[in-house]
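Now for a typical sample entry:
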Amino acid sequence: MSIKAIIILSLLPLIACDRKMDPFIIDGEHVRIERHPHAAFTGTSCLVNGEVSNWRCGASIITQNIVMTAAHCFDSCRNGIIKGILFHTGHENKNLGRKSSGHKFAIHSGYSSVISGYDIALVLLKTHLKLSAKCSRVALMKYPPYGEVAYVSGWGFVNVSIPLPLTYCWC
C-alpha cells in the first residue's frame, strides 16, 4: 500500500466529522502494551538554524517499516537536518521496548502549524519491526463505524499544567 493511500485512509474519519477538532489530547490512564500493541514512542531531533529541536510523540505502527505519527513532531525537520528519529515499540515503558530508527518522513500536504487538521506524518524505518503480541500493526478499516467511542494511546502529557515524564504509555 502506498504512503498516499495510507494517509487518505487515515483521514476518512476526519472528513466525515463536522465537529471542530481539539488540538490537544489530555488526561488518560496508564495501560499495558498488550491493549494497544500498535502504539510506539517517537523521539525526533533536528538541527534548525544552528539550534536543536527535539520532539517526543506517540505513533502507530502501519506496517513493519512504516509508522504514522503527528506532523507537528516533524515540522521543524522540514527545513533542517535530521539528527535522529527513534522509535520504541513492544513495551508500555519506552525504556524497556525495542528500538528502531527512522530515516525518511513525509508530512501530509494539507498540514499547517497554524490549524490542527491534517496533523499526520509517515516515517520509513531503516529496518523492519519484528511483529508480535506486543508489537503489531494498527487496524485501518476501509469502512470505519461512525458514532462509536474511539480510544487513543500514546506518550504525552496527562495534565496541561503538570507535565509528567514521558516514560509510560497512556490511554
Notes: Residues 1-19 have pLDDT under 50 and may be disordered.
